[in-house]
Amino acid sequence: MDETPKPKSNFIRDIIDEHLRNGRFTKVHTRFPPEPNGYLHIGHAKSICLNFGLARDYKGLCNLRMDDTNPETEDIEYVNSIKDDIRWLGFDWEDREYYASDYYERLYDWAVVLIKKGLAYVCDLSVDEVREYRGTVNKPGKESPYRNRTAEENLDLFARMRAGEFPDGSKTLRAKIDMADPNMLLRDPLMFRIRREHHYRRGDAWCIYPTYDWAHGQSDSIEGITHSICTLEFEVHRPLYDWYLDHLGVHHPQQIEFARLNLSHTVLSKRRLLELVESGLVGGWDDPRMPTISGFRRRGYTPESIRHFAEIIGVAKDNSIVDMALLEMCVREHLNKTAPRVMAVLRPLKVVITNFPEGRVEEFESVNNPEDPSAGTRKVPFGRELWIEREDFMENPPAKFYRLAPGREVRLRYAYFIKCQEAVKDAAGNVVELRCTYDPATRGGDSPDGRKVKATLHWVSAAHALDAEVRLYDTLFTVRDPSGVPEGQDWKDTLNPRSLEVIAGAKLEPGLAGAAPESRWQFERMGYFVADRRDSKPGRLVFNRTVTLRDEWARIVKAGETQV
Ligand code: ATP
Ligand code: MG
Question: Is any atom of ligand 1 closer than 6 Å to the C-beta of 70?
Answer without folding.
Answer: no
